[in-house]
Design a protein that fits this description.
Elements (H helix, E strand, L loop, with lengths): L11 E2 L11 E11 L14 E9 L5 E2 L7 H4 L14 H11 L7 E5 L5 H8 L4 E6 L2 H9 L3 E4 L4 H10 L5 E5 L8 H13 L3 E7 L16 E2 L2 H9 L3 E9 L5 E8 L13 H23 L4 E4 L3 H10 L5 E5 L17 E2 L11 E4 L5 H10 L1 H4 L4 E4 L9 E3 L5
Parallel strand pairs: 5-6, 5-8, 6-7, 8-9, 13-14, 13-16, 14-15, 16-17
Antiparallel strand pairs: 1-2, 2-3, 3-4, 4-10, 9-12, 11-12, 17-18
Amino acid sequence: MDSSLVSASGKNLTTRCRLCKTGSCKILFDFKLQPNVLSLLESSDSSCIKHSLVLHHCTNCNFVFIANPMPDSDFYEDVQHATSYSPALHMPELIQDILGKLSHIANPFVYEIGCNDGYFLKLLRDEGLLHVAGVDPADKCASIAREKGIKVSTDYFSKDLANEVLSNIGVPDMVICRQVLEHITDLDSFMLGLKAFTDSGSILLLESPDLGIRNPARNIWEQHVNYFDLATLANLLDRFDIGIFESSSLAVQYDSWLAFCRKGKGQQYLVEDVDRSTLYDRVLLTLNTIAEEVKALHDAGMRIAAFGAGARGTILINLSNIGQYLEFVVDENPYKVGKFLPGCRVPIVPLSHLAENVPDVLLLLPLGDKGAEFRVMNRLSEFRKKGMSIIELTTEDGEELVIHPPEKK
């Protein structure tokens, strides 16, 4: 990996912390110029706009964030993909948990913020929760949800929208906000909307990648402008009189946390016990390990490809600078096939391409969650019988890649 790619200079900034509003911020990571990984290229020589990707650390509240992110419109209006291509493994268990918490309410109302194509709301409706609605800023995704008969508005969530829901639809018994909070640039406006719900009696379900995990590199990309652990989340919620009453870790969802919240004080977490300097060390170790391993395979004459043209995989390729060694990347989303990854410009091909072009090594890039990766591993078994090895790039400890050698015929 290019040694100049990542730096943690500790340079003081005048930027205010997005969470606590103080000015005691320092640079934690400087990933230099990076492309919007959702903007796939139409050809190998298409222009590719890049923006600086710098993560900051607030020494006052220990929050990690991107102070100057790309505009929201670059992510959520025209290029956002439907998420139901890769459903999370923990969905059945989470749905049963939600059903249990709402079992005492007749015809409960569930509202989802960032509902994408309505996949999760449809699962809830199929389980008997008929009063569901949501919001998503990506009109293409929201249109898919509406085709399923789900009431979804196309908008960015805010206090005004929350009040509109309360006035026109009613008080949600549960508000779901999964894998959304890490994307919000205006936390105050967003949180005031959540507060309007919790003040009215709603239970709030939050889910987000956990900054305290062992392998944080797989959750860093330009669309993730906020990096929470439960301590910084509790700090944010407390400012709006919201508390966590139940929390858990989701190892299958790339070590995310799950928190049920409501109005008032909740569980307490110690912010000062977390050392962010170890975060830098772990991310750098992961990127260097990937770069060194892939380069060694290439130097040994191996033909190398990858699976998964998603955001996490693309940013990992670009940050570790391994795109130069990849012949192609396989993806099953027809929207992506025929295009090229931004930055590294690796061509995206369908799964059928492997039938006549089996590489020596296939890198399994991070997908929606570990469950999706397990399912892909099973489907690729036939190619391992043809001599292909598979390497998982993102393991649980982040220090050692897992190599799955060819299977015996």
